[in-house]
Every structure is written in structure tokens, then in C-alpha cells.
Amino acid sequence: MKDNLEHCTAWFYNQDTSRKKTDALEMWEIENILNSPNMQTDTLKGLTYSVWFWLTLLCNLRGGGAKNLYNAGRHNYIPADQPNNYSPVADILLYQSKRPKDCKFFLRINTSRKIYHSNWFCDSTLGKHSHDNMLKNIIADCKIDAKGRNL
């Protein structure tokens, strides 16, 4: 038992520390993002951004968790919407109502012609780089200065 603990401790302390840790968003930055016109759910991009941000924020998704929502294997509590406040539940339900059933959760935005016929999303998933860059795109669109930060 003691040898096993020493081995685990040695392994822990010998981990690669060269990777830069991520910086958290400040509360005012989160509020700025949620209040941004770029996060409004009346556009496809805004709806996708909003739902992605809500799920990563409220469910504490990290390291690809947003890419594999159905594989998370855990339950998270999302608070009920409050009048005159943010509405994560309504945003998520709106997103679900606009996407095809039996597909991965986050989907690509459809062509203009199909959008005109109320088919907002196609049945192919967002690409890996789309997920990887989602927060960077949200921050850039909301005009938050992230220079020198690892977000």
C-alpha cells in the first residue's frame, strides 16, 4: 500500500508542467458575453453560441465535454429560467426545436435556401475546430480583450 501511494505521489509530482493553465473568465466578462447582441437567439449563430456557452458554463464542461454531450455520463442541474433574467432553459429548448432529431447535439448551420424553409441546421455535426474555437469566437465577437490569456 505504501509503495503504491509513493508511486502515485511521484507520478503526480512528475507531471508535465510546461502546459499553460487556462485562465477563467471574470464575472463581468461572462455578463458581457450573455448580454451581447451576438448571443441573441434570433440568429442561428447567436443561438448556437448561446446554447454552447450556457452548457459549458452551467454544466462545467471542459476538455471536449461539449463535443460529446451524450457521452458525459453525469447529470447536471440547470436552474429554471427567471422572469426578466437570463433564460438558459428556453435557449436550449429553442435550439432543440430547430435541429433535426436523432443527431449529435451541436450541428452545422444549413444553407440559406434550407433556412428559408425553416430547416435551420443540417444533420452533420460541428467540426472539431468549430468546438475548439467556439469560446475564442464568442470572445472576439463580444469584443472582450483576451490578449495574453489562455482561455
Structural features, described:
- The structure is a single chain.
- By secondary structure, the protein is mainly alpha-helical.
- The chain has a domain at about 25-70 and about 85-140.
- Helix content is about 45%, strand content about 5%.
- The chain is built from seven helices and two strands, in the order H-H-H-H-E-H-E-H-H.
- The protein has helices at about 1-15, 25-35, 45-60, 90-100, 110-115, 130, 135-140, and strands at about 105-110, 120-125.
- A two-stranded antiparallel sheet has the order 1-2.
Q: Which structural traits does this protein have?
A:
151 residues; mainly alpha; 5% strand
In short:
The chain is built from seven helices and two strands. The protein is mainly alpha-helical and 151 residues long. The chain is globular.
Number of H/I helices? 7
How many E-type strands? Answer: 2
Radius of gyration: 19 Å
Span from first to last CA?
39 Å
| General shape | globular
* Unreliably modeled segments: 1-16, 63-67
Average of pLDDT: 72
Going across the major beta sheet, what is the strand order? 1-2
What sequence of helices (H) and strands (E) makes up the elements?
Answer: HHHHEHEHH
Q: Approximately how much beta-strand content do the residues carry? A: 5-15%
- As a percent range, the share of helical residues equals 40-55%
User: How does the major sheet shape up?
Assistant: 2 strands, antiparallel
Q: Structural class from helices and strands? A: mainly alpha
Protein name: 6776_t:CDS:1
